[in-house]
Specification:
single chain; mainly alpha; two-stranded antiparallel ribbon; 56 helices; 2 strands
Length: 1175
Amino acid sequence: MAGKVTFFDTNLSFPSNRNTQGFQSASPDTSRFVPQSKSHHELDGSAQAQDQISRCYEKLRSLRPSDSATLKTELNLLFDQLISENYSSSNHDNIHPEVVCEMLMQASRLVPLSQEHLFIKLCQVIHQLLNQLQVIVDEHTLDVLVSYCSRALRTCSSWTHPDVLLALSSLVYGNGSKCQRHLPELLGLSGFLVSYGDPVQPDIELRRSAVHCIANLCLSVPGQPYLEEPYKGVCYGILLRTLQSPKPPDVEDIVFCSVSTACFLTLLELKLLQSALKGMQYFLNGGKWKAIPNQDLGTLLAVLKSQQNKKRKSRGKGKKAGAEGKRDAEEGEGDEVKSTGGGVDQSAWSLGSQSSSVTSASGVTPQLYPSWKKGSSDSEFSDPEGGMQSKLRLYQARVRQSALQCFLAVVKCVEKRILYGYWSSFVPDAPGIGGPPPLTLLTIALKDPSPKVRAGSLQVLSALLEGSRQFLSTAEDTSAPRQAFTPFSATLAASVRELHRGLLLALVAESSCQTLTQVLKCLAHLVSNVPYNRLRPGLLSPLWKQIRPYIRHRDVNVRVSCLTLFGALVSTQAPLPEIQLLLQQPGSTSALNTPGVRTPQELSHNWRRPGTSSPGGAVEGGPEGPCWLLQLCVSLVTQPREEPYSDSDAGGSSGASLEPSPVRLEALQVLAHLVKGYFSLAQASLLELGQLSARCLAEQEPSVQLHGAKLLEELGTGIIQQYRADANTPQSAKLVPVCQVVQFWSDVLSGPLISALQNEQHPTLQTSACDTISSILPQAFSQLPDKTQVLCITLLLGLTYSENSLVKSAAVRALGVYILFPCLREDVMFVADTANAILTALDDRSPNVRAKAAWSLGNLTDTLIVNMQSVGLEFQEEFSDMLLLNMLRSATKASGDKDRVKSNAVRALGNLLHFLQPVHLGKPVFEQPLQEAMTALIETVRGDATMKVRWNACYALGNTFRNRSLPLGSAVWSKEAYSALSYVVTSCKNFKVRIKSAAALSVPSTRDCYGDVHQFAEVWQALAQALEHSEDTEDFLEYRYCASLRSQLCRALLHLLSLCQPEDLPALRSSLSDQSRPVLQDLLVRYLGDKDVALVAGVDGPAGEEAVDHAAPEDGLMLLNETLTRLKGPLEETALDRSEDLKTVLSFLEDVVRNFEEIKESDCNDSSLQLSKSP
């Protein structure tokens, strides 16, 4: 089937409105809002074009091949009509691609290759129709016409070949993978495109057409395969050689030509380069970069860097500077230089009065080229030559722009870890002083006269910075500088500082609104990835000061980007002390009157009347008043605008009098980031923000409603984090009073939030509303009116049966939060209703719903354990046995699901097995589910699931062992459970899993729980072996858990020693009498003497779990002494026949105690000696 797509125009200017995904324009214009409307002229033009195509098609169908002059005349007239029509000026959706393809095939049947002039006209028709009508030909038409053109290249005169290649390029556009039959003839060893596209080809026009054709072969439309090897490699080689040597050796050098001839030849070269760059971009868009011998990334980057420097004239002072800057600001088309008939240097883009802002530290403005290249007078060129010079500068800018677009494609297709090896080639680490600055992306953004090229460099820099957090995390300059050498961390930190400096200069100097938007976006990417906590403070304060005026810029895109940057500032590594101080600055200081804050461009384009609120949301008050950024964002969302906006604001407002929707949405996002990172500054405006969110939820626009709900969720989460016992809240921070929290949620729940929960037309809003009401503070929920509590619970229970999976998963998760509320967890009816809803969701088709349901089931079973300990038998007796059985079966089934479901399912299994009472275990109906649950846990521990799943499974087995009602020592599954844990504690590569397995092995409180002698010996030997090899690991990251692992293993061994019986002594003696004895003895002594081991052991564990599994070393010493007393007392009398075994064990334990006492006494003497020497 034929399809539609936009082609290159005839002068190879490569329009940016193609309907393919193989190319992404670097122009900032692509993000601007353009109203889609059709004028009467466009509709009339479309109808005329359709009529003409239909008439020509019917006429061609009526003709038959012949040698008559009449046929030639009619074909000439038809082709002239088709060529003369400008189809790109009107809409052409009504013209069917099938008709165009059939018409071109019929024309090829009527035009023999011997009639070269008529054939050339046909080639022009093919190129123009396919290009302007945006048609991709179908496979049959492609085969016929490519064969037709190939025959022409073999038989026709050489002067026809450029036009033939242009027609061929339009045919193969996006069809490279469908040309398999013709590729040997085109790209083989002696193929047409290989010979014509070779750098030694003397005819530049022919070479340009061949490279153009190669570029179109490399393009693939979405859904189609890419060009295959070896032809893909052939294309890459030709394109790269073209970029490396664009001019053949026998072409006259530009220095020895007249100005007109030199400009003409240079234009051809520039068009050739532009085709090659576009082809390279299409090649790079064909998939991830693969390092093969003929494709060296360094060579490609060097070539692209050289093309970015194509005859650029620096932005500098000049008499045309003011007009140029104004034109850039108004049109954003500084590179579209028009011929004026004179030799005026239209590219002398200047900063005017603000040029001093981009000077170096020495006060000298760095330039890329010598002064003679910019000192030509108007009289040096004649009028035509001046026009040619303007056109030359235009194409030079296009080449630079294409090179940057190609570089952007490189950034997207090459792995960042490889690309960062070339970081220093494109990002400076020091300002250029005392000569021309090196060519970097920052230099282009500051110096290039074309705003589109400047925007392109900023887009590339943004792509480099995006996702660079791990790479930049090594940057550090807080320590004193080294004299001997400069570490990489310091070099990278200098690069980060230079990026801040350069982008700030670009921000002050830029006058084009589109490029200014890219500067702000690039700064946002930089701020989001830089590790400011490892750098000296002071980087963010100048940036904060400079961007405040741009919140009030006349262009809506600039305002949105400025708010995005503020969002990045308040969200990166929050809370940062520097940002906290900036937020606390008084908002009454107007940026209009602050020196250095307002840019010259902003002073000339103020879109608010004097006397309005300041950019900082100015409110009178000191640092203790409301945060100025918060007040500003609230005003942007709620207050009406006061003056008309620029043209870019059209169509962007949710109401006639309010700010445009993008500004309001970005302001709401900044508020959400501010509340999340700096809640202590926002809590003073808690009720005001609640009213703002309610107002947003009451609006009709879904995006505003969603952002309002998100803000509410962040407010609720901030309150909860303040009240958490383990939150690192400063002592000076005041908690929000519970009464104020109750008032806040009462107002919210009596507003439009409930309506949002019931709005089935917008499931995304329902999902966000569920997340919002799950962020209510438990202490406040208990004080809400009963009808409000019941309403929330009823709505959530009902939404768990929603047909939308997102809504259902959010509702199930919210119930999983509510089940932990102290005021609800003891309500048996609520627990039962929640359990039934969760069990239903566990059988859902959506993996996301099942994952949330498993998490909620884990929380529910945590509640059962808490109730068992706090309420006692009363709750257990009221809880339904059948429901408990269903929960056990569902959790067992879920433990075989995907890992994200399994990790919480095994946690729930451990809690349920802990919760079972003798009354349950005595019923036959529980026997098989119990066996299946234990089997599931054992298989998960032994399996190959993720470490998080196995960690939870080990914890679940330890939780199960705490149930004294289970037949732990005699059951069939008991031996398998101990064997699985013993296997993991010695062989698992992940130390956290080993820690949990050792903790589980130390849970049973009596000797009978460990089974027979062989089972006890297996556990002991596994723990002893694990302790002996506790530092053996291939993963360096696991070393941080070594202390925790040794602590848990020592505690488990001491626990087994405290329970051992005479029949267990032979097994203990065998492990204590060989070469492993000194190792175990030394590790136990270190454990007893390590005062910080309990702290280390608790790292990275869930709250409240590690405290159960770890004991302080003092408890271990007490346990060891008790074991010695027991072994020397009654146990010694019953172990007469095993006296040697007992002596060995006693000797080992006594040596441990004695060595520990000696070390302790030595430490005390050292401390006393130091105190006596101190003055």
